[in-house]
Design a protein that fits this description.
Length: 123
């Protein structure tokens, strides 16, 4: 169990390090934002000191890193019913796709009914 926790912490720290580098931020930049020394920040990234939840949340905000990305959560397709985004279009597309599938299914069932009635009438 403890091994799994260590692995998860290492993944989170790697994500922080990679995101920091991709955003062009140095240890010094991060340390200044967190009000700590660069060497202390470096130790955090190398997991030589414990990263507190408060500091983790500050790092997340500094890097503008969503929780889903930080913790590598698989969120799947999420549709919010908010007029500010394109969720309505996505819902309409899903509705249209389901409608077409249902229409095909109904047509197939109607054809099967006609066929079965024909068999019944022959007897």
């Amino acid at each position: 169990m403890e091994e799994k926790i260590t692995t998860n912490i290492d993944k989170i720290l790697k994500k922080i390090r990679d995101t920091r580098k991709n955003k062009g931020l140095s240890h010094e930049n991060m340390a200044q934002e967190l009000n700590m020394s660069p060497s202390a920040y470096n130790k955090l990234e190398r997991s030589e000191t414990t990263l507190s939840l408060e500091r983790l949340l500050k790092i997340k905000d500094i890097l503008d890193l969503p929780f889903a990305d930080l913790f590598e959560l698989k969120t799947g397709d999420t549709y919010n019913q908010d007029l500010k985004d394109n969720a309505i279009g996505n819902v309409q597309n899903l509705y249209q796709e389901n409608k077409e599938i249902n229409e095909k299914l109904i047509k197939t069932l109607q054809e099967e009914i006609i066929f079965l009635r024909g068999l019944f009438m022959e007897k």
